[in-house]
Amino acid sequence: MEVALREVHDSDLPVFFRQMNDPEALRMAAFTAKDPADWHAFDALWKRIRSSDAVARTVLADGDVVGSAAVYGEPGEREVTYWIDRAYWGQGIATAALRDLVAEVPERPLYARAAADNEGSLRVLEKCGFRASERARGYAQARGEEIDEVVLTLEG
Ligand SMILES: CC(C)(COP(=O)(O)OP(=O)(O)OC[C@H]1O[C@@H](n2cnc3c(N)ncnc32)[C@H](O)[C@@H]1OP(=O)(O)O)[C@@H](O)C(=O)NCCC(=O)NCCS
Hints:
Blueprint: E1 3-7, H1 13-19, H2 23-29, H3 39-51, E2 55-61, E3 64-72, E4 79-84, H4 93-104, E5 110-115, H5 119-127, E6 131-140, E7 145-154
Antiparallel strand pairs: 1-2, 2-3, 3-4, 5-7, 6-7
The structure holds coenzyme A.
Coenzyme A binds next to helix 2, strand 4, helix 4 and helix 5.
């Protein structure tokens, strides 16, 4: 399967919206929007992301839109985030996409945050060179409770 990143097109947003409303994916990611089913809030967030200095990319697998990946945040505190359509999990797509994204963005360190029980995401980050640097607790919207979170760092 050929994985590639490209700029986000307007027509990708409804696809992301569907992918990011999958109940199993939401539970896994845990730290999600207050109301993921609110299209207007979702659309407004993506407008802000795309007009900021974030590096936002659409993930393609054999030409299909299968997810998104981005680097965002203040200089010195830039974080990565990614989301893959559940139908495509377990095929190395997130790992390939994150590898390409961090190769494209030269800033270091880069940070990532994942729910402590999000084993898939932690493994993707580890495979791309991120190392756990801190543990924290935070309110996870998708779970309705405070949970453990791991902060990871990719050094230069
Ligand atoms: C986490 C996520 C991005 C992983 O995407 P993916 O394309 O399936 O990941 P990959 O196929 O590249 O998997 C990489 C590694 O993680 C492992 N992995 C993936 N999902 C896993 C899971 N649910 N449990 C345990 N390990 C998992 C794979 O086995 C693989 O490890 P290996 O190479 O040692 O075998 C995807 O499940 C997702 O989008 N989840 C919802 C959103 C989310 O959690 N985003 C991250 C927020 S921090």
